[in-house]
Write a structure and sequence with these properties.
- The protein has 2 domains: 16-170 and 230-322, Bira Bifunctional Protein, Domain 2 (BirA Bifunctional Protein, domain 2, 2-Layer Sandwich), CATH 3.30.930; 330-418, Anticodon-binding domain (Rossmann fold), CATH 3.40.50.
- Helices cover 37% and strands 22% of the residues.
- It has 16 helices and 16 strands.
- The chain has helices spanning 16-35, 49-56, 61-66, 85-94, 97-100, 139-155, 172-187, 195-203, 214-220, 232-247, 292-295, 310-320, 342-352, 372-380, 390-393, 413-418, and strands spanning 39-40, 46-48, 68-71, 77-80, 104-113, 125-134, 163-168, 252-254, 266-273, 282-288, 303-309, 330-336, 359-361, 382-388, 397-402, 407-412.
- Helix 1 (16-35) runs antiparallel to helix 6, helix 1 crosses helix 12 and helix 6 runs parallel beside helix 10 (232-247).
- The longest helix has 20 residues, at 16-35.
- It is elongated.
- The mean pLDDT is 84.
- Its main location: cytoplasm.
- L-histidine binds at residues 83-85, 114, 128, 132, 260, 264-265.
- Residues 1-316 form the Aminoacyl-transfer RNA synthetases class-II family profile domain.
- Belongs to the class-II aminoacyl-tRNA synthetase family.
């Protein structure tokens, strides 16, 4: 017995029934980005490992546990991209995109890879939109980016199901001071910590804030708070940002424990979350990274960006409306009951395709039993069914079945060609 192969764990197939919904979300987001004057950039899914280690941070979970690392034939270390910001910046620097103008508004889309424990909403290969805004360090840019996400949620009819969480990390120096005091605090309570949590204390104490442990959550109530360490300038810009969001009637909560999983962020960070997604509740996340371009070898250039997880958006849409991802994927299905009409069916299809691009012909020469073609059409999920049969074709007519309204019409073939919309009503 031959072996049955399965996809790699954590890598999932996107089947035709779901593709239609995915493409609708993709095209909606692309159109909004185009209207906001963002331009597409495409970078490789493989980069040198050192690029990610330098930018994301050696003490993050992504670098330590989640990277797909390889060696090429020349023994150089390369990695599948775990996120898109770093590759985007590398491409901008390498191709001198900041030479003429530091201000760049860019977007990209494609697969990202992280070796995480697969579960609902978390895959090892996942589809992600990334949006980056370079050249402006004002809180107005932060506001503009957040309002861009609001536009996307409104267009996708998801805004009422999402919650905006925001925070300010201050400067890297602010975070270092906070991290040191947080470490000192937890060193007094090491008895209840796991081995992994103890390791975080020596490598990246701030990551403890992300813990879901009830013991850690209880300790954090009396632990140092990040916003007490933020410098006055960062505090003022964050307050102004919150004022703008309030004036725009954007509902948000300030989450003092929101730190994001990457080391390069400063000042504003934000996440859009949904209670309908369980533990993997974040569908969009981003923040400001004013030092990263310079850190990767370019001239200093402030920036802010965000990423949207398309897989989680699809799961969210399904949880809201299970039928939203089960759209018809054929407008018209043409079936001939006698093989002599096979060529005619192709001719009719070619005449109608400019009006009905999603058009399918049943090319099987197998003779259908009476009314069996209707079962066939239901499996294909078509809006309309055109049936070619001798009894009608002999008088230049055709049977049109409206699957939606369960309504039948007999129409002259010539009228169908002259007006392809004739059988809609």
């Amino acid at each position: 017995m031959s072996k049955t192969y399965q996809s790699v764990r954590g890598m999932h197939d996107i089947l035709p029934l779901e593709i239609n919904s995915v493409q609708t979300v993709e095209e909606t987001i692309k159109k909004i980005l185009h209207n906001h004057s963002y331009f597409e950039i495409r970078s490789p899914i493989i980069e040198h490992t050192e690029l990610f280690k330098k930018s994301i941070g050696n003490n993050t979970d992504i670098i330590h546990k989640e990277m797909y690392n390889f060696r090429d034939k020349k023994k150089k270390k390369i990695s599948l991209r775990p996120e898109g910001t770093v590759g985007c910046i590398r491409a901008c620097i390498q191709n001198n995109m900041f030479y003429n103008s530091k201000i760049q508004k860019l977007w990209y889309y494609g697969p990202m890879f992280r070796y995480e424990r697969p579960q609902k909403g978390r895959f090892r290969q996942f589809q992600q939109f990334g949006v980056e805004y370079f050249g402006i360090n004002s809180y107005f840019a932060d506001y503009d980016m957040i309002m861009l996400t609001v536009s996307i949620w409104k267009k996708l009819n998801l805004l009422e199901y999402l919650i905006l969480e925001i925070n300010s990390l201050g400067t890297i120096k602010d975070r270092e001071d906070f991290s040191l005091d947080l470490k000192r605090f937890f060193q007094k309570h090491t008895s209840g910590l796991t081995t992994y949590e103890k390791k975080l204390l020596s490598t990246n104490p701030i990551r403890i804030l992300d813990s879901k442990s009830t013991h850690i959550i209880k300790l954090l109530k009396s632990a140092p708070i990040l916003n007490q360490y933020i410098n006055s300038h960062s505090h003022k810009r964050f307050k102004k940002l919150c004022t703008l969001l309030t004036q725009s009637k954007v509902n948000y909560i300030v989450n003092n424990q929101l730190v994001r999983g990457l080391d390069y962020y400063n000042d504003t960070v934000f996440e859009w979350t949904s209670k309908k997604l369980g533990s993997q509740h974040t569908v969009c996340a981003g923040g400001r990274y004013d030092n990263l371009v310079e850190y990767l070898g370019g001239k200093k250039n402030p920036a802010i960006g965000f990423a949207i997880g398309i897989d989680r958006i699809i799961i969210l849409k399904k949880s809201i409306n299970p039928e939203s991802c089960e759209n018809f994927f054929v407008d018209i299905n043409i079936i001939f009951l006698e093989s002599m009409y096979s060529v005619l069916s192709i001719y009719i299809a070619n005449q109608l395709r400019y009006m009905w691009p999603k058009l399918r012909i049943n090319t099987s020469l197998k003779k259908f039993k009476k009314n069996n073609y209707l079962k066939k059409s239901n499996k294909i999920k078509s809006k309309f069914l055109l049936v070619l049969q001798s009894s009608l074709l002999n008088v230049n007519k055709i049977l049109v079945k409206n699957i939606y309204k369960k309504k039948n019409q007999i129409i002259l073939i010539n009228r169908v060609f002259q007006n392809p919309c004739i059988f809609i009503n």
